[in-house]
Structure formats: C-alpha cells, structure tokens
Amino acid sequence: RSSYSCCYFVLPCCFFDFHGKYSRRQSKKTQYREYLDFVAQVGSVCGFHVEEDCLRIPSTKRVGFIGKSRTYAAAERAQIDQQITQFINSRQTCAVATCDRRVGLNHKDHCDGLCKEAGSEPPEDETETAGTIWMPGFQPREKVERIRNCASLPRDFVDEVVLNVANLLLNAAPQKSCSDKQGGNMNSWNQGESLSLTEVAEHLNEETLKKLKSEYGGLQTLLKNNHQVFEVLNGRVHIRDWRKEKPPSKTKPEVKRRLAAEAFKTRLCWFFIHHPDGCSLPSEVCPYAHGTEELR
C-alpha cells in the first residue's frame, strides 16, 4: 500500500497473521507450506504478480516471494486499496473466530458466517480513512522489547530461589551420612528427591511467585536457566548429578579444544559452596571452580 511503484521481497519465517499468530486451517499441508501460501495470497490480493524462489542460505526457512509488477493499472489503485481493506477486515474477523474451534465449531463455516454478519463491505468511515488508518485498534509492540526470560531478574533474587528449591529437594530425601570428600567416596552423596513444578511452587512465598509469573515460563524457565544445579524433565525438578553427565567429545578439532580449555572454570561450583556433601566430582574433572583460586 506504500505506492504504485513499490516492489517487494519477503522471506517468511515466523507464523504471524495481521493481528497475531497465524492459525492453521488446512491439515493436509505442512504448517510452513500453508503459511507460504497465505503470504503469497497477501501479495496477490495487493495486486502483485507474485514470484516464488528458493534462496541458497543455510536455513530451513528459505522460500521467498518477490513482487516486481502489478496486475492492475495505476488508475485502479483506489479500487484495489478497498479490496485490501476488505481482506484485512476479513482476516481480523476470522482471527476472533478461531477461539471457537475449542468447542467443536467448523472454523471455515463459522468464519464465513461472521464475515457475512460483519458485511462484505467495510463501513463507510473505514473506507474513507483507508489511506491513513489501515487497521483500526491495532496495537504494535514496543520498539524496545522487554527481556522476560528470567535473565534480567536480580541476581540476589535468583540465587535465593535456587538455594530454596535445592534445599527443598535435598530435605525431601532420606538423610544420608556425609561422604568422605578426601577419599573421594561419593556413594552416599545426597542427590535429593524429584518434585513436580507444582509441588515446588507450593513451597515458595507469594511475592516470589508473583515475580516469576511476570516472566515467560516462570519458575520452570528460572530453573532451566540454572542448569548447573537443576534438571527439569517432564515437569519434574531434579538436582543435577554431574557424575552422570556425558564426558566432552575427544574428537573435537584442535581449535575448539583450545578454546574450551581457555574458557574452563569461569564460574564457581554451586555444589562445592552450598551442597552439604560438597561436589560429586573431584576438582580436576568438575567443569566449575572449587574455590576462587581455580577461576580463570
């Protein structure tokens, strides 16, 4: 809609419609192919001869569309713009109808019904303002998107939650005698019990849960971010046992081995500091520092 002389190139990636996430309508096609067809349809509705091409790029999403020429004369631009407005309005109406699929309604029929109720012609005021207001009520997201993956939470808050959850898992297990750290006997190292995310959340205070709910993924994301301490599998939280972790591959290229060695032990070992039995691994094989003197 920029101008009649405008051309375009688009490389579809994430599945979005005009008003939110794209909702699938054809189960016989893959989600990617169906979305590509939708993007091509948008180009056609806008009056372009749409060409499809596959890019030579290392990506699974490499099908692009090019619009270099129009299917109508410049004098017909106002009519095509009205056609575009109707198309956008129909997509908006159908987007609202998708929620009814949960109760077994046929989406296509329901959308058709809603579109008929709304009227095939756009309201007069909408037609008049089509040149300035393309999508009334649309709210774009902020230019600077807030990081909400728990990475921006205060470090003290994260450390406190990690310690509380770890102690909860450790105390849920039967008490075991401390291991002989000097002799390296770790058979009695306390691995703790596994608890569901719901059970863990029940033991956290209301203020903590409120902070976590404002982040994407909440408690689960925070625990997964702290993978040195926790392992989250099938909705259950475990204390990570580094003795069971696979050793690094010995077939790495020399450059990668050298880089790994230089980056070795850049963080303190949480288990060495906080676990009642210390770390389950000897210092020489633990990927984390057993004391500040080992940090690089």
Task: Describe the structure in your own words.
- With 296 residues, the chain is α+β, with helices and mostly antiparallel strands.
- Among the domains are: 8-71, no CATH class; 242-295, no CATH class.
- It has helices at residues 31-45, 77-97, 107-118, 124-128, 155-172, 197-202, 206-213, 218-225, 254-262, 270-274, and strands at residues 8-10, 48-54, 63-70, 195-196, 230-233, 236-239.
- The strands form two sheets. Strands 1-3-2 form a three-stranded antiparallel β-sheet, with helices on one face.
- Strand 2 (48-54) and strand 3 (63-70) form a beta hairpin.
- Helix 2 (77-97) packs across helix 3.
- It is elongated, with a radius of gyration of 28 Å.
Discrete helix count: 10
Q: Strand order, biggest sheet?
A: 1-3-2
Proportion in helices: 25-40%
Q: How many distinct beta strands?
A: 6
Amino-to-carboxy terminus distance: 56 Å
Q: Which structural class is indicated by helix and strand composition?
A: alpha+beta
Instruction: Supply Rg.
Output: 28 Å
Write down the overall geometry: elongated
Give the biggest beta sheet. 3 strands, antiparallel
Task: Give the DSSP E fraction (strand runs of 2 or more residues).
Answer: 5-15%
Mean pLDDT, to the nearest integer, reads 81
Task: Give me the strand/helix succession.
Answer: EHEEHHHHEHHHEEHH
Family: Belongs to the TRM44 family.
Function: Adenosyl-L-methionine (AdoMet)-dependent tRNA (uracil-O(2)-)-methyltransferase.
EC number: 2.1.1.211
Protein name: tRNA (uracil-O(2)-)-methyltransferase
